[in-house]
Every structure is written in structure tokens, then in C-alpha cells.
Design brief:
The complex is a heterodimer of chains A (374) and B (395). By secondary structure, chain A is an alpha+beta fold. In chain A, 53% of the residues lie in helices and 14% in strands. The two termini of chain A are 29 Å apart. In chain B, strand 6 and strand 7 form a beta hairpin. In chain B, helix 7 (247-257) packs parallel to helix 9, helix 8 runs antiparallel to helix 9 (299-322) and helix 9 (299-322) runs antiparallel to helix 10 (347-354).
Chain lengths: 374, 395
């Protein structure tokens, strides 16, 4: 076992700076809050710059297929920054989940390469139509049928990123299909979600025209590969959430006076923040380990599966804890709609469940590390 | 800084081995020759066991010597000398002190111990009450020290004592090298909850220390001690571990070998701790990678917190998992071990000994303050004792 590279390369650090300055410009908490009140599922202007102009939508996709030819490590850095700002953009759903599923299909075929290129270049937004929560290693239920004419019928509940997506990747019996969201027979109905910065929708198909991009066996593998990459990289988003919550709470604790001194000078407060700092530092190591293992090992290796399971078992809880501490240590203001803490709390709690709750991932650890249940 | 590189070190190591064949050379003679060749600690100055080389090149020498079957200086036995006394002597000692002390310290001919903590000065070390009074060129020391490992084996001690009670507590302290063979030094074993005595109480009664054995200026002792303590924290929790290294590996092996002990509750807790141990391992690995490229991070102070908590929780789980065997204890005989060996004893020992992990080398509560104030920049608690003469402090 060689040790993973847990640091950030110079190129990764540059990428982070670029994304961070864009988000500082266009996704300040107040802007994210205001956007939640609109009907738009995501910030199309921000997405265009991030995905197309900066090229981050294609980080996982090889250059010959229209992408940047980077990989999971770089993608993870983008997700850290997106977690830090809870920006409402379909990055995880389109550039990670949908892109990974297509990459696991036969990219030599036009019906795979075409949509992948459009997605990588940021020209189209895609969503993998699987019901959340879903975790690697446990194939989601297949609730869509393909008929003899090749059209799809059925319903998929709680799909992240479906609202606003132009292309749907649908797992139906017989394989994986692409469906144009604008086609007749496709209905995408928003669900009132806990986390409004990553909208959920029900996808209803009634004889929707579709193209098959993978057969049964490959479709199962492609969905699992997408879930593994998604879960592993979600750890970096969770790290970003936790980082923002920690930094913001430390700042507040140094400024807020009660009993004639900053509340951050009380050990009851500072010990909690020091504990949280330690957990965030640990989450960084776990998230980097997962990203590096996905880059080194691909989706098929045991090391990657174990590193992802470890990172998801750990980082989801750290993000939730950080957001909960952020609310508590802000006191009354942390409970208001006006303060952005709740955006982070809702994202953190939804993220903790979305791609497998920690307990699910610990079951994977049990299997891979040979620690069997009674 | 010299320009010596890895090849230069290999050449010098080869020359040492050629002149002093480990197979036929007396162990101590070899270690002395190694020190004189500058291959003891290569980052030390020439003439003091080093070559002014980068510290990162030390493993080159160690690998060559290990391959040739050369004896080592048994670093576990002389950890306090190597890790705490030596860096302090190097930084604050006079030329005479460096010449006198460093060579026998490194070869292990002279063992060192540390006389810092007192019954009334634990976390608040600067409140120490041991007095040193000067008479011409000699100091006379009276007081009591505690938690001194190796005091019964040591030839020398690093000692901090109060030399001016009229000053605030941090200012009236001076740092000395104390001769442990002085008739006024009495060492008594301090038996711990494990049944053994790793540590001692040391009673100092009219102990005479020549002024030539003072390290740093009179009243400068706190600053000098900070160097020592920084090196202690680097030493604790800094070792590289493989996956399932440390205590979690012991419990995992028991889990695999004894299916009849498994319950659902223990399974959930084992998995949670396994993940946390793996993440702590990765955090340590990340810190080492940062150090290797010259970007030291503040994670070091946090790692000790993680390992203390994990050791305690894992060993507690292990005793519970063992059930009937957990009710037994391997041996309560009072012993004087030379080091801590977590894997050489039974689960009950690990459980009890791990309790010390959140106390020794800085309690977890103090470390949390350090992280909060130095890493996060949070304001300190208001201090009522800082500007008051030590003699006027409530106690």
C-alpha cells in the first residue's frame, strides 16, 4: 500500500483561487439566500462562468472527449469551494454524477461521446435520474420500463439536479438511457426540499423518447461508478461546508461580547471550537485521501472503495457538527432566516444522507476491512 | 550550513564502517566513533556529533548503518536526553556545557531525566515552588518534583527552579543541569494505576549545583523550558503508523479471531473507532507530507488530542469486548519498566495506561486552549496571576 498524496498541488491551489474569487463575487451568502426565494433552480449566470468559461464542468472528462483531462483531485478542490459558499449550481449532479456515469459507458460510441462533450464543455446540464438517498454498492431500485419502441415510462422520486437539467440519464430495465428533458412525455416536478440550494424533483416519464447508452450490466456498473465518485467527492464539499462554519463561528466568537468579554475567551466556547478545528483538519485528510484514491485507483479498486467509505463515514458528520455548532455558538442570530448559518445546516444535513448515511458507509468498511457483523 | 548531501553522508558512513567494523568493535567504542564522525545527529554542528547537514538526511545514515548491522544508541532508553535535554543544551548551553554533556548523552553512557512538574505545579508549570538560592558560584536547591521518568537511572537532570519569588511567576525561574548523584537527591518510585512505576517522585534537599551548570540566564528559565517542552510535543504522537497500526489493530485482530464475542452494539462502536483511527492516521500522514515539503501545519498539536481520545476509547472497547477475559488483569506486580509498551501487555493494562495519554505532555484541556488561542486566534481567558509576584499568589 503506497501512501496517498494528501496535499494540494500548485495547479490545484491556483484552481481553488480562481473558483473562490468567482464565488466571492457572485455567490455571497446574501445572494444565495435571495436566490432561494426565486423559482430558478440554479444560478444560470454563475454556472455559465464556472462550467463553461472556467472549464470546471469537464475536469473529470479526458481532453479528447471535450474535457480538461484533469481528475478527481481537481474536481474535489472545486467542490470544497462550492461547499464553502453553498452555491446553487448543478456541479455535483452534472459534472460529477452524470459525467461519471457517462464516462463508465462506452465513450467510443457517438450516443455517449456526444452528450459527454456537451456536458464537459458546459453547454448542457445533465442529471443522473436516480432516487436519493443512494449509496455505492447498493444499486438503486429501477422504477422505469423501456417498451419495445424504445420509449421510457415510469417515475423516479427525489432526483437531485433534475430541475433545470436539459439531459436526463435514466436507469430503466434493459440499460442506461439518455432522455432530452424538453421531450414530450417528460415531466419534472419540484419537491419541497430540506436543502433549497440543491433542489430535488420527481421525474415522470410517459412514453418519453430515449437513446440507450449502455446495456443492463454496464448500466449497473456505470451507476455504481457514479455513486462511488459522487460519494468520494462529496466528502470535499462537506469539508468546505465545515470550513466555512468553523471560520465564521471563530470570527463571531472573537467579536461577540457578553459578560464584558468576547465569548471566544470562555473555555466552554473555545474548547468546542478547538475540537471542531481538529475534526475539520481530520476531514481534510480523509477527503484528500478519497479524491487521491479515486484518481489513482479508478472506480474499480478496493483501495478507492475503502477510502471513499472512510471519508463518507467521517466527513458527513463533521459537516453536520460544524453547522450545528455554528448555529449554537451564534446564539439567537444563528436561529434567524436572515443569517446564512441555516443554509449550511440544511446542506450539511442533506449531504449527510444523500449518497449514503455514515452508517451505510461503515457497513462497507466492515466488509472491506474484514470486520464482520455478529 | 554545509553543503553535504546524501552521497557525502554515505561516503562518511562507509568510512566509519571501514575504520570500525561493527562485528569486531565494542558497542560503546563504535557509538563514540560515530559521534566523532559527525554521524550521530547530522543536523547538529560539526564537533558536536553532527555535520550541519539538513535533518531530513538523517535517515540516509540510519539506513546505511542498519544495513551494516551497526549497533544503535537504544533511543527508547534515552528519549528524554535526545528529545528534550539535547536540543535545549544545543540552543542555550555554553561551549563547555555542549562539549561536556552531548557526547555521553547521545551514546547513552549518561542517562537524563526531567525535573519540571511538581505536586503543586502541573498544567500551571510556571507556578513551581522548588527554590534555588545562590551563594557565590553555587546554588542550593530545595523542593519536590514528580512524574519523573527514568530518575532512578539518570546521571543528570534538566531542572527548573524558582530563583526570585518576588517576581511574577514566569520571570523568577532559572534552568539548571542537576547532578542526580548529589547526596541531597532522593528518588522514590511513584506507583501508578497500572500497578507499575514508570515514574518517580524526586525530593531535593540542599542539592548543590555549580553556577557553571546553569542553562541560560538567571530568570530566563521559562523561555529555556519552552524550547524543551516544544520538543516534547513534537516527540509525542509523531510516529508514522500503518493502517491498523496501534491499538485499533489489536482489537480488530481479536474481533476477527473470536466471533463468539461479537455483538451488534460492539460492532457499531468498533466500526466508528476504526474509521476514526484511520482518519487520525491519515491526518498524521498529511502532517508528515507537509513537513517533508517544508510547510509545517498546526495539526501536530491536534494529533495528540486525537490519539489520546482514541487510545482511551479503543482500549475501553477492547476490555468490554473481551468479556470474561476483560475481568482479569495480567499482573499487578510493582515493576519499573523502562518504557511504555502498549502492545506487550493485556487489554486491562492498555485501558489503564491510556488514561495517562490525555494528562502527560500537556493535558487535553490545556492543548485545547493552545489550539484555540494559537491556531484559531481566539482571545485568552483573563489572567489574574500574570503580573503578581509569585510569593503573593493564592495557593
Amino acid at each position: 500500500m503506497t501512501e496517498p498524496d494528501l496535499l494540494y498541488s500548485e495547479a490545484e491551489t491556483d484552481l481553488r483561487s480562481a473558483v473562490r474569487s468567482l464565488l466571492a463575487d457572485r455567490a455571497q451568502p446574501a445572494a444565495v439566500l435571495a436566490r432561494g426565494e426565486t423559482a430558478d433552480p440554479y444560478d444560470a449566470g454563475l454556472w455559465r462562468v464556472l462550467a463553461a468559461d472556467m472549464g470546471t464542468a469537464g475536469l473529470l472528462v479526458p481532453e479528447k472527449l471535450g474535457g480538461q483531462g484533469a481528475g478527481p483531485r481537481e474536481t474535489a478542490v472545486v467542490l470544497e469551494e462550492l461547499g464553502r459558499s453553498v452555491a446553487p449550481v448543478p456541479y455535483l449532479t452534472s459534472a460529477v454524477l452524470a459525467a461519471s456515469a457517462l464516462l463508465a459507458c462506452d465513450t467510443a460510441r457517438d450516443e455517449v461521446a456526444g452528450p459527454l462533450r456537451a456536458l464537459a464543455e458546459g453547454r448542457r446540464v445533465a442529471a443522473l435520474a436516480i432516487p436519493l438517498p443512494a449509496a455505492p454498492g447498493a444499486p438503486p431500485p429501477v422504477t422505469v420500463r423501456a417498451d419495445a419502441a424504445g420509449t421510457l415510462s415510469g417515475e423516479v422520486s427525489a432526483v437531485a439536479g433534475a430541475a433545470g437539467a436539459e439531459l436526463l440519464l435514466v436507469r430503466a430495465d434493459g440499460g442506461l438511457y439518455t432522455v432530452d428533458a424538453a421531450s414530450e412525455g417528460v415531466r419534472v416536478t419540484g419537491i419541497t426540499a430540506l436543502d433549497r440550494t440543491r433542489p430535488l424533483a420527481r421525474v415522470t416519464l410517459a412514453g418519453a423518447p430515449a437513446r440507450r447508452v449502455a446495456g443492463e450490466e454496464r448500466a449497473t456498473a456505470a451507476v455504481d461508478a457514479a455513486l462511488l465518485a459522487g460519494a468520494g467527492l462529496l466528502a470535499s464539499e462537506q469539508l468546505g461546508i465545515a470550513e466555512w462554519c468553523l471560520a465564521e463561528t471563530v470570527r463571531y466568537a472573537g467579536e461577540r461580547y457578553q459578560f464584558g468579554r468576547p465569548i471566544g475567551s470562555f473555555q466552554a466556547v473555545k474548547h468546542r471550537l478547538a475540537e471542531l478545528w481538529l475534526q475539520v483538519a481530520s476531514a481534510r485528510a480523509a477527503a484528500r485521501s478519497a479524491a487521491d484514491a479515486l484518481a489513482a485507483d479508478g472506480a474499480g479498486g478496493v483501495e478507492a472503495a475503502l477510502a471513499v467509505a472512510v471519508a463518507q463515514s467521517y466527513c458527513g458528520q463533521v459537516a453536520v457538527r460544524a453547522a450545528e455548532e455554528c448555529v449554537q455558538l451564534h446564539g439567537g442570530i444563528g436561529m434567524t432566516w436572515e443569517h446564512p448559518a441555516h443554509l449550511y445546516l440544511k446542506r450539511a444535513k442533506a449531504d449527510q444522507i444523500a449518497l449514503g448515511a455514515p452508517g451505510r458507509h461503515r457497513e462497507t468498511v466492515a466488509a472491506l476491512a474484514d470486520l464482520p457483523a455478529p | 550550513m554545509s553543503t553535504i548531501d546524501a552521497d557525502g553522508l554515505r561516503r562518511r558512513t562507509a568510512a566509519l564502517l571501514a575504520a570500525h567494523d561493527p562485528a569486531t568493535t565494542d558497542r560503546l567504542d563504535f557509538l563514540r566513533a560515530r559521534f566523532d564522525a559527525g554521524l550521530a545527529w547530522v543536523h547538529f554542528p560539526a564537533g558536536l556529533g553532527g555535520l550541519d547537514a539538513p535533518r531530513s538526511l538523517q535517515p540516509v545514515v540510519e539506513a546505511e548503518l542498519a544495513a551494516a548491522g551497526a549497533p544503535d544508541n537504544d533511543p527508547r532508553r534515552i528519549g528524554i536526553g535526545l528529545g528534550m535535554a539535547a536540543p535545549t543544551i544545543l540552543r542555550y548551553g555554553t561551549d563547555e556545557q555542549k562539549q561536556r554533556f552531548l557526547r555521553p548523552l547521545w551514546t547513552g553512557e549518561e542517562v537524563w531525566c526531567q525535573l519540571f512538574s511538581e505536586p503543586g505545579a502541573g498544567s500551571d508549570l510556571a507556578a513551581l515552588a522548588t527554590r534555588a538560592v545562590r551563594d557565590g558560584d553555587t546554588w542550593t536547591v530545595d523542593g519536590q518534583k514528580v512524574w519523573t521518568s527514568g530518575a532512578h537511572l539518570a546521571r543528570w537532570a534538566i531542572l527548573i527552579a524558582r530563583t526570585d519569588p518576588g517576581l511574577p511567576k514566569h520571570q523568577g525561574i532559572t534552568y539548571f543541569v542537576c547532578d542526580m548523584s548529589d547526596p541531597g537527591v532522593e528518588v522514590r518510585p511513584l506507583r501508578q494505576i497500572t500497578g507499575e512505576a514508570e515514574f518517580n517522585e524526586v525530593f531535593l534537599t540542599g542539592v548543590r549545583i555549580p553556577d557553571a551548570h546553569r542553562l541560560g540566564g538567571v530568570g530566563e528559565g521559562w523561555r529555556v523550558a519552552s524550547t524543551t517542552l516544544m520538543n516534547e510535543r513534537v516527540a509525542i504522537g509523531g510516529a508514522r503508523v500503518p493502517r491498523e497500526g496501534g491499538m485499533i489493530g489489536v482489537v480488530a485482530e481479536t474481533w476477527r479471531a473470536r466471533p463468539e464475542l461479537r455483538t451488534h452494539d460492539l460492532h457499531q462502536r468498533l466500526l466508528t473507532l476504526w474509521v476514526e483511527a484511520e482518519v487520525a492516521r491519515l491526518t498524521g500522514e498529511r502532517l508528515r507530507q507537509q513537513l517533508a515539503v517544508g510547510q509545517p501545519g498546526p495539526e501536530g498539536s491536534g494529533l495528540k488530542l486525537s490519539f489520546a481520545r482514541l487510545n482511551q476509547e479503543i482500549s475501553g472497547l477492547e476490555v468490554e469486548l473481551l468479556g470474561a477475559d476483560g475481568l482479569a488483569y495480567d499482573d499487578w506486580t510493582m515493576r519499573r519498566p523502562e518504557g511504555v509498551d502498549f502492545t506487550g501487555r493485556d487489554a486491562g493494562y492498555r485501558y489503564l495506561r491510556a488514561k495517562g495519554n490525555s494528562i502527560e505532555g500537556g493535558t487535553s484541556e490545556v492543548l485545547l486552549n493552545i489550539v484555540a488561542e494559537r491556531v484559531l486566534g481566539l482571545p485568552p481567558e483573563p489572567r489574574t496571576d500574570k503580573d503578581v509576584a509569585w510569593k503573593d499568589l493564592p495557593r
